Each structure stands twice: as C-alpha cells, then as structure tokens.
C-alpha cells in the first residue's frame, strides 16, 4: 500500500458531510408536486364516481401514469437517487425493468383465466350474470355497538 | 440528474468507492430492491386475480367512512388523509437527513421526532380503518361488499386488501421502531461521536420506501 492509496481509500466519514447537495427548496417542491398529483387523482376519482363522465379504462391509465410519476419523484428526490452516480442508478433501474415483463405476463394470464372461465365454466358464467340483493352491513355494526 | 463519471477517472482500480456511497447505504438500496419485488409480487398477484374476475367491489363504496362524522358518506377522504400523513412524514425524514449532513444534532432530534409522530399517526389511521371494516363484516375470508355490477363478490377482495395493507402496515411499524432507535442513538450522541449521521440516511431510505409502496397500494386498492 502506498501513501496515495491509503489516503484515497474511502471511510464512512468521507460520506454524509456533503452539505452542498442538500436543497430544502427542492424537497418542498417535491412535496407540493406529490400532494398536487394526489389531490388531482382524488378529484377525478370522485368526479367519475358521481357522474361516470369518462370511460373507466382511460381513467385507470391516467392513475397508473400519475402513480409512476409520484414514484419517480419519491425515488429521485426523497431517496436522492437522482443525484447519485450513474452506475449506482443503473444497478437499481435495470433490475427494476423486470417489472415490465412481470406486469405484462401476469395481467395477460389473468385475463386469459377470465376468458376461459366465462367460456367453459357454466357456474362462473351464471354467477357473473346474477344480481344479488344489497347487504345492509351498517346495521350489523350498530347492533354490536361498534362504529 | 445523475452524475456521470469524469473521463479518465479510474473508478474501478481500487482506492475509492465506485458508487460514491457508503457500503451500508448501497446495501440498503439492494435490500429495498428485493423488498420492492416482494411487494411487487403481492400487488401483481392481486392484479392477476382481479383481471380473472368478471367484476370487483367499488372502492368508492367500500372506503367512504371517516371517524367521528358517523354515517355521512365521504368516498376516499380518510385514505387521502393517510396519504397526506405519510408524504408529510417523508418530508420530515428528509429534513432529518439534511440536518444530519449539517451535523446539527438538535435539528435531527426534532425532525426524527416529527417523523415518528407521522408514522404513529398513520398506524393509528390504519387501525381505525381495519376496525371499521371489521365491524362492517369484512375480514380474511369474509366479504360483505357486493361487486360494482350488483353480482355476488368473492372473498378475494378482502383477502388481498388485508394481506397487502397489513404487510405494508408491518413495514410502517418496523420503520417506526427503526426511527425510534435512531432517535435514541442521536439523543445519546452516538452519531456525534462517530462524526457522521449516515445511519439516519439509511433509516431514511427505508422510510421513503414505505412511502413509495403506499403510493402503489393507494392506487391499486383505492383508485383502480
């Protein structure tokens, strides 16, 4: 070991004293973005519930995009990953891409199960067409004295 | 955005940390990675079952209660409050990390304390929600809510709801315990003696991850 090596070798104390990278303003900006997106999601969810104004699957697409946006801001700003070295970012981002396959494969499977059930399972098919009487679950809670 | 490695700099020839983060922090990232896949597997199995069902209960009907106001129907209001509490506690956690980097012990104690309060408030809200749903007859294996199209629902809805929010709640609980330990260590001056507050940063990463998972749980159970 030469002198240069030992002086350059990292110890815990070298990290975590980096005042320059901490930006309070950026944190609050992230907070307002997250809050804004959540409030917007709620507003359109409630508008849909009251009026059924737009098709549900378009709405779901909007929710998924907004969720991914929120996830990005939490990981990049709160967890500080956006300010780390690119190599580190990639060791997190590349494995996370497995989720793309994971989602497509399993959602595809789910809708395939559904199709098969509706075609070959008479009981399931009839159940999916039979309306049931609404249950008054509020009353039960009152009798037990729990609210 | 991310830093790129300067040209000509030998990051992999030893003598420096190639990722420019402390070992423990890097390992926390990889732990969170594995935890993300655990949660991912739960949520994706929920998605598969939901795709295979012809209908599903309406979250606006199921989650429409709020403490104190009784029978009044306020769809999603309570869960929005829970979301707000968790985002807020994430902000106080970042502030604790910032205070740690500035070696400001008093500020670290203050922000960690607020973060713990936020975590406890979230757990309290979840306890109320579970109790309320239980009083309506919902539990593992019991589902009193019918499907949105008026057909008979299965117990898949409640099974997944209680399992996944329960698993998330357990993460919040362990996060609160970790934060309490960090608060005690800060208060005793352990980090002052070692000269850095990196443990606060690692606890912070875990805490933000809990917030991150909630974002997905919120979308999957309450919005979709």
Total beta-strand segments of chain A: 0
Major sheet details of chain A: none
Compute the number of helices of chain B.
7
Alpha carbon gap, first and last residue of chain A: 70 Å
Largest protein-protein interface: A-B, 79 and 88 residues
Q: Give the SSE order of chain A as H and E letters.
A: HHHHHHH
Q: What is the share of helical residues of chain A? A: over 70%
Strand content of chain B: under 5%
Q: Any key phrases for this structure?
A:
heterodimer, A: 147 residues, mainly alpha, 7 helices, 71% helix, flat, disordered N terminus, disordered C terminus, B: 224 residues, 0% strand, globular
What topology does this entry show?
The complex is a heterodimer of chains A (147) and B (224).
Chain A: H1 3-8, H2 24-51, H3 56-78, H4 86-96, H5 98-120, H6 122-127, H7 137-143
Chain B: H1 23-52, H2 59-62, H3 77-101, H4 105-135, H5 156-188, H6 190-194, H7 198-223
Helix pairs in contact in B: 1-5, 1-7, 3-4, 3-7, 4-5, 5-7
Protein architecture, described:
The complex is a heterodimer of chains A (147) and B (224). By secondary structure, chain A is mainly alpha-helical. Chain A contains seven helices and no strands. Chain B has 224 residues and is an all-alpha fold. Chain B has helices at residues 23-52, 59-62, 77-101, 105-135, 156-188, 190-194, 198-223. Chain B is globular and about 65 Å long. The two termini of chain B are 31 Å apart. The model of chain B has no long low-confidence stretch (mean pLDDT 92). Chains A and B meet through helix 1, helix 2, helix 3, helix 4 and helix 5 of A and helix 1, helix 3, helix 4 and helix 7 of B.
């Amino acid at each position: 070991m030469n002198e240069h090596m030992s002086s350059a070798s990292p110890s815990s104390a070298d990290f975590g004293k980096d005042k320059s990278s901490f930006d309070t303003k950026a944190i609050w900006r992230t907070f307002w973005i997250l809050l804004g997106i959540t409030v917007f999601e709620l507003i359109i969810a409630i508008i849909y519930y009251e009026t059924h104004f737009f098709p549900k699957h378009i709405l779901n697409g909007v929710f998924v995009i907004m969720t991914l946006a929120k996830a990005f801001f939490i990981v990049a700003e709160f967890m500080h990953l956006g300010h780390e070295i690119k190599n580190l970012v990639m060791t997190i981002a590349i494995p996370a891409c497995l989720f793309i396959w994971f989602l497509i494969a399993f959602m595809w499977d789910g809708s395939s199960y559904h199709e098969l059930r509706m075609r070959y399972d008479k009981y399931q098919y009839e159940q999916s067409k039979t309306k049931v009487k609404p249950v008054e679950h509020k009353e039960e809670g009152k009798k037990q004295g729990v609210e | 955005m991310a830093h790129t490695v300067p040209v000509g700099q030998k990051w992999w020839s030893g003598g420096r940390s190639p990722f420019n983060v402390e070992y423990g922090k890097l390992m926390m990232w990889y732990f969170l990675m594995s935890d993300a896949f655990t949660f991912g597997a739960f949520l994706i199995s929920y998605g598969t079952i939901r795709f295979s069902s012809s209908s599903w209960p309406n979250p606006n009907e199921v989650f429409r209660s709020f403490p104190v106001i009784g029978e009044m129907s306020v769809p999603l209001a309570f869960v929005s409050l829970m979301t707000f509490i968790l985002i807020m506690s994430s902000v106080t956690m970042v502030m604790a990390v910032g205070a740690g980097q500035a070696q400001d012990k008093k500020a670290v104690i203050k922000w960690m304390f607020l973060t713990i309060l936020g975590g406890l408030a979230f757990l309290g809200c979840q306890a109320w929600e579970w109790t309320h749903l239980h009083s309506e007859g919902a539990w593992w294996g019991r589902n009193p809510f019918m499907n949105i199209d008026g057909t008979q629902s299965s117990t898949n809805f409640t099974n997944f709801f209680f399992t996944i929010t329960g698993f998330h709640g357990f993460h919040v609980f362990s996060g609160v315990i970790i934060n309490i330990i960090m608060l005690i260590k800060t208060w005793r001056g352990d980090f002052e003696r070692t000269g850095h507050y990196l443990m606060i940063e690692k606890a912070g990463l875990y805490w933000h991850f809990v917030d991150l998972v909630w974002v997905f749980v919120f979308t999957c159970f309450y919005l979709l």
